[in-house]
Amino acid sequence: MNRASIILDKDYVIGEIDPRIYGAFVEHLGRCVYGGIYEPDHPEADEEGFRRDVMELVRKLDVPVTRYPGGNFVSGFNWEDSIGPKNQRPAKLDLAWFTTETNEFGFHEFVSWCQKAKTDPMYSINLGTRGVEAAMNIVEYANHKGGSYWSDLRIKNGSKDPFNIKLWCLGNEMDGPWQIAHKTAQEYGRIANEAGKVMKWVDPSIELVACGSSNSEMPTFGDWELEVLNECYDTVDYISLHRYYGNRTNDTPSFLASSMDMDDFIKTVVAICDSIKGKKHRKKSINLSFDEWNVWYHSNEQDEKIKKLDKWGRALPLLEDVYNFEDALLVGSMLMTLQRNADRVKIACIAQLVNVIAPIMTENGGAAWAQTIFYPFMHASKYGRGKSLQAIVTSPLYDCKEYTDVPYIDASAVLGDDGSVTIFCVNRDMEEDYSLDIDLRSFGDLVLDEHIMMHHDDVKAYNSADNHNNVKPGKGPGGAFEGGNFTAVIPTLSWNVLRFRAEK
């Protein structure tokens, strides 16, 4: 059995973990909304058409914030189409995904769903085909108490109380040529600044997220952030990052190391933000919103077939990745990467929440179930609240096609407000179990509360409509204390949660 070690100290704090790093994303894409969170004819639908079985799974994830309504969708979307009587809302062609949007599920429905799901809305505005006036009006509609045209229209449409949406995205992926009304960095930076300025005039309490690069492989990455922030630094509060990973070459060692790229991406954007801070002689720091992240590649080929067969259809089954066990391991490492960057990453959204590259899957008219990636997300969200600790990990390393010096043991640690310590850990080794020595001497007397572990002998194993529980967590082997040191057994290719509590 190989050996690795972790040294922890209660005073080695990276930063307070903002619960919003466990956010999610709901876009009008595929079956995320229609057939996902909303299906009025389903046996589990409530009086508003929301699926109760899906709602129950969402609540288990404890998602603090949900980004909506896009995504690429938002760059051609008129928010006014989504309010008022449902039978008067227009059906529109969605040029982002080549489908038809009926607007049956709209602004008020989303806010009501958020209230029931116990999540706060994070609303994206259209800075593709729309601009400053629409941005100003939607904040008035959502957040102004009353006595003005747009706020009174909200009241007329059934919501006397303001929505009080505090987090707003200034467009989506405006650096991408695929985006409707794609802009240069200077063009986008200017309109983001002007739109954000008037939005804060309407409601000074809101926070704004500017579009960063769509991914770290964009040819404009770096220059984009520099130019955008040069234009809107004083107006915005966060800049976004988006990143997806796939295992198209069936290279599991490289795939499981992809979170190292995610960490590099974060640290590069932080450096860029701070360079503009220095250039402008500002005291304010821009933090990060990693508001799209996940594994995404399984459905690409199928999506092309669907688009050819049923262009302009409604709620087509697009981006329905069926996640396997190795996907869950990488998602675990990505969550730990967010925790280890808690000093600057304050918001993050797994993309997406239901059916579309999602932890939750459904059948129209049928069952809902948790995919493999559901479990590490649930564990991180449930037990990863508090202070992120600097975990000094010593582990054997490996080289692979894409990366060098990859630690077999990937870990993060969180100090809870109640004095508990939680260690999240992935063993990337495909052949060996590990004896993991954990130095916990600075925390006083601790006891192991539980060792949660997820492993499957087949890295391609997945959950399905016929077998919801093929891959799920169970009880880990645990370990033993000797003084202030705990030695745990971390099985080969496994996701682990070690929860310690103070001994009374």
Structural topology:
Elements: E1 2-7, E2 13-16, E3 23-25, H1 52-61, E4 65-68, E5 92-94, E6 99-101, H2 107-117, E7 120-125, H3 132-143, H4 149-156, E8 167-170, H5 185-202, E9 207-210, H6 223-232, E10 238-245, H7 252-256, H8 259-280, E11 287-295, H9 300-309, H10 325-340, E12 345-351, E13 360-362, E14 368-370, H11 374-383, E15 387-389, E16 392-394, E17 397-398, E18 406-407, E19 409-415, E20 421-427, E21 434-439, E22 446-454, E23 474-475, E24 479-482, E25 485-490, E26 494-502
Parallel strand pairs: 1-21, 3-4, 3-12, 4-7, 7-8, 8-9, 9-10, 10-11, 11-12
Antiparallel strand pairs: 1-16, 2-15, 5-6, 13-14, 15-19, 17-18, 19-20, 20-26, 21-25, 22-23, 22-26, 24-25
Helix pairs in contact: 3-4, 3-5, 5-6, 6-8, 8-10, 10-11
What does this molecule look like?
With 504 residues, this protein is α/β, with parallel strands linked by helices. 26% of the residues lie in helices and 25% in strands. The protein is built from eleven helices and 26 strands. It has helices at residues 52-61, 107-117, 132-143, 149-156, 185-202, 223-232, 252-256, 259-280, 300-309, 325-340, 374-383, and strands spanning 2-7, 13-16, 23-25, 65-68, 92-94, 99-101, 120-125, 167-170, 207-210, 238-245, 287-295, 345-351, 360-362, 368-370, 387-389, 392-394, 397-398, 406-407, 409-415, 421-427, 434-439, 446-454, 474-475, 479-482, 485-490, 494-502. It has an eight-stranded parallel beta barrel with strand order 3-4-7-8-9-10-11-12, surrounded by six helices. The chain has a seven-stranded antiparallel beta sheet with strand order 2-15-19-20-26-22-23, covered by helices on one side. Strand 5 (92-94) and strand 6 (99-101) form a beta hairpin. It starts with a strand and ends with a strand.
